Amino acid sequence: MPRLLPVEFGASAEVLDMNGPPRNPREYLRQVQLEASQCPEVVVAQIDPKKLKKKQTINASVAGCHAAPLGFSPSLSWQQHQVSTFSGVRQSIAKNRTHWSSHTLDDNVLMPKLTDEEGWKRFCFGETVYLGASSGHTDAEPEPALDYSKVGFPPFLSIVSRLNQSTVLMLLEILISWFEEHDFVPQLGRWLYALLACLEKPLIPEAHASIRQLARRCAQLRSTLESQEDEKLPALNLLICLVARYFEQNDLADQPE
C-alpha cells in the first residue's frame, strides 16, 4: 500500500525496542510499520475440532400441532373474535403501561429476581400448585382465604407492566417449560395470556420457538381430553388460536371442520 506519512524506516528501526513503550510519535509510527511488515499476508486460524463437538447444530422439530379430535376445535368465527379481543387487550396495555407501572405494589407483592426460576413458578402458581406439582398432587383445593402466596399472584397490570421484553420472554420460557411436564392449571392460563399480550411484534427467533412450543403442547394435551365439556378445552383452544392466528404461525392453526 502507498505510504501516507513520511516516516523514516531504515537501519534505525533495527535497534528499535519493540518491547517497550514508544518514547515519541515518530518511534510509535516506526513500531507500527515494523509490526505490519512482519505480519503474514494470509493468516489461518488454528481450530481445535474437539471444542466444536459440544456446540453442534440442534435439529429442532418443525412438526405441526396434534389434530384436534372431532368436535374439539373451535369455529373460524370464534377464532377471529378471540383475535380481535386479544388485539384490543394488547392496545390497552401498550397505551396504559406507563400509568400502571407507576403504581406502588402492595407490601405482600415481592417479585422474584430475574434469574430465580423456582421463585417465579412459586410467584405465578402459588404454593398450592407449586408444591403440589413437586410432590405429584395437583388437585389440592386452594384455601378459602385469598392468600396470593398460596394460590399465586394473578398477572395484575401493575405487575406485568413492569416487565421488559427480555423478562416477558424469560418468564414465558419458564412457564412453558413447566407446562411441558405438568397438567394445565388456571394460574398458568392467566399468566400465559397476559405475557402473550405483552409480547411485542415482530417476534425474535427465541419468541417464535417458545410460542410454537406452547401451541404444540396445548394441542397435545387437547388430544387426550375425553369430553368436550372439559374445563381445560376453551383455554387450550384459545392459546392455540392466539399463537396461530394472531402471531401468524398459520401452520399450527385449527382448520374449520
UniProtKB/TrEMBL annotation:
UniProt main location, coarse: cytoplasm
Organism: Sander lucioperca
Functional summary from the UniProt entry: The SMN complex catalyzes the assembly of small nuclear ribonucleoproteins (snRNPs), the building blocks of the spliceosome, and thereby plays an important role in the splicing of cellular pre-mRNAs.
Signal peptide: none
Family annotation (InterPro entries): GEMIN2, Gemin2/Brr1
Protein name as annotated: Gem-associated protein 2
One GO term (biological process): spliceosomal snRNP assembly
One GO term describing the cellular component: Gemini of Cajal bodies
Pfam families: SIP1
Family, similarity comment: Belongs to the gemin-2 family.
Gene: gemin2
Highest taxon of source: Eukaryota
Keywords, ordered alphabetically: Cytoplasm, mRNA processing, mRNA splicing, Nucleus
Subunit annotation: Part of the core SMN complex.
Location(s), subcellular: Cytoplasm; Nucleus, Gem
